[in-house]
Amino acid sequence: MKQFKGRPLTGGSAELEAVVSKQGVNTLATFQKSALTGAKQVIASDQNNPDLFGKNITGKALCLPITIGSTTGGLVIQTVCAMKINPKAFLFAEHVDSLAASGIVLAKVWEDSDVIAVDLLGKEFLDAVKTGDRLLIDEDGTVTIL
């Protein structure tokens, strides 16, 4: 068991399966196809991200350094949360970027989403966590790899 302490951005606790990207996640490229087709789950569609491409990320803990890409990133996150096909948690190794933060906060406030977000977990977190690991996320921003 390894523990990492981050900064909770939107509260919540859960035990979830990890899906890990070692590179920045392009939210538009990752979520757009599922959002536009009204899919029941997000199958990551960013062909430039081999860590995520083709993986189901709905209801999972998306572990990532940061989001990258289009200025529509926040809207895309809010949209998948409104559709209830979002990752249950966004676990950032670095500072959350403003676009991801805006989408997550708007989803919480406007969509009554239960999405969890924690940032500042550190590079060591991304080095330790693997896709398929079970994670315990606590309200205080502690993430434990079980």
TrEMBL record:
Keyword hit for Lyase: yes
Keyword Transferase among UniProt keywords: no
Domain Phosphomevalonate dehydratase small subunit-like: 48-109
Keyword list, A-Z: Lyase
GO molecular function, one term: lyase activity
A Pfam match: AcnX_swivel_put
InterPro entries noted in UniProt: PMDh-S-like_dom
Annotated signal peptide: none
Entry protein name: DUF126 domain-containing protein
